[in-house]
Specification:
Elements (H helix, E strand, L loop, with lengths): L29 H14 L3 H16 L9 H14 L1
């Protein structure tokens, strides 16, 4: 089976770049990483997405915006309220 594949011209990395995002390396404490991974697994989302949301909330709070990120649960709640009102 290995003879069927030729990866000699292959390149590592994402096939499609993510606009507005930059790949970095960051060192996090083990307990912080475990917390976000466990929370992400329970919610069925990615831990990096959750870390990004936490950082975004901190930046928003520091700049006086206090904007809560839109989650699937919050979106469902708003839609249910709007449908009941209609």
């Amino acid at each position: 089976m290995r003879d069927q594949y030729d990866f000699s011209q292959g390149k590592r990395g994402a096939v499609i770049p993510s606009p507005g995002k930059t790949r970095i390396t960051i060192m996090l404490d083990d307990d912080i990483l475990e917390y976000f991974r466990a929370r992400a697994e329970a919610r069925g989302t990615g831990y990096q997405t959750m870390i990004n949301a936490a950082l975004r909330a901190t930046v928003a709070s520091a700049s006086g915006q206090d904007v809560e990120p839109l989650t699937v649960a919050k979106l469902r709640e708003v839609l249910r309220e709007e449908l009941r009102a209609a």
